Amino acid sequence: MLQPRKLKHRKSFRPKVKGRATQKTELAFGSYGLKAITGSWVSDRQIEAARRAMTRFVKRGGKIWIRIFPRYPITAKGGEVRMGGGKGSVERYVEKVKAGTIMFEMDGISEEVAREAFRLASHKLPLRTKILIKQEL
């Protein structure tokens, strides 16, 4: 799973996902992209599941870029634990994905294959998505 090598603070406050994205809103690497329409947290497991779905469908052809990285720790206390005793331990890492963020990009494959790969990947993610195609001039 993806997780940061080093953090300034081991435990942090929960990230907000309101509003629209100002960064990562244009295709930078590939010809096709998967863009978030709604905002949500995306966990390390969901990113990995989407990556595997895309990679398997394109049969390791072309090139895939992952533009998001889970950098925020989410803590949780164990089941049936009494109140108090401090903050729980780190359970997982998430990335806050705002509406308009491009999460994945692809290149080196046909449009039909890219569309189907992104469709399979979007089923693994907790938000609504849209497929982008770079218009060549």
Automatic annotation (TrEMBL):
<dbReference type="InterPro" id="IPR036920">
    <property type="entry name" value="Ribosomal_uL16_sf"/>
</dbReference>
<dbReference type="GO" id="GO:1990904">
    <property type="term" value="C:ribonucleoprotein complex"/>
</dbReference>
<keyword id="KW-0820">tRNA-binding</keyword>
<comment type="subunit">
    <text>Part of the 50S ribosomal subunit.</text>
</comment>
<dbReference type="InterPro" id="IPR047873">
    <property type="entry name" value="Ribosomal_uL16"/>
</dbReference>
<protein>
    <recommendedName>
        <fullName>Large ribosomal subunit protein uL16</fullName>
    </recommendedName>
</protein>
<dbReference type="GO" id="GO:0005840">
    <property type="term" value="C:ribosome"/>
</dbReference>
<keyword id="KW-0689">Ribosomal protein</keyword>
<keyword id="KW-0694">RNA-binding</keyword>
<comment type="function">
    <text>Binds 23S rRNA and is also seen to make contacts with the A and possibly P site tRNAs.</text>
</comment>
<dbReference type="InterPro" id="IPR016180">
    <property type="entry name" value="Ribosomal_uL16_dom"/>
</dbReference>
<keyword id="KW-0687">Ribonucleoprotein</keyword>
<comment type="similarity">
    <text>Belongs to the universal ribosomal protein uL16 family.</text>
</comment>
<dbReference type="InterPro" id="IPR000114">
    <property type="entry name" value="Ribosomal_uL16_bact-type"/>
</dbReference>
<dbReference type="GO" id="GO:0019843">
    <property type="term" value="F:rRNA binding"/>
</dbReference>
<dbReference type="InterPro" id="IPR020798">
    <property type="entry name" value="Ribosomal_uL16_CS"/>
</dbReference>
<dbReference type="GO" id="GO:0000049">
    <property type="term" value="F:tRNA binding"/>
</dbReference>
<dbReference type="GO" id="GO:0003735">
    <property type="term" value="F:structural constituent of ribosome"/>
</dbReference>
<dbReference type="Pfam" id="PF00252">
    <property type="entry name" value="Ribosomal_L16"/>
</dbReference>
<keyword id="KW-0699">rRNA-binding</keyword>
<dbReference type="GO" id="GO:0006412">
    <property type="term" value="P:translation"/>
</dbReference>
